[in-house]
Backbone:
């Protein structure tokens, strides 16, 4: 179930084994991303998530727009 979390909660989730997913384009991902995050553009999320992610672990999806 989706839930908004703040930075502190993201850090705690990450320490507990959550996966970080950046949903911007690959070009934007290469400019800046959180350490350990994987690039999974929003348009590909539905089709590739099951292949790339371990669905038994929590997933934190974020979109960092540096404009």
Residues:
């Amino acid at each position: 179930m989706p839930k908004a979390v703040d930075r502190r909660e993201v850090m705690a989730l990450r320490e507990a084994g959550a996966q970080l997913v950046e949903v911007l384009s690959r070009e934007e991902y290469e400019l800046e991303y959180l350490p350990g995050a994987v690039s999974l553009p929003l348009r590909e999320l539905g089709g590739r998530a099951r292949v790339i992610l371990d669905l038994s672990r929590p997933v934190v999806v974020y979109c960092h727009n540096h404009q």
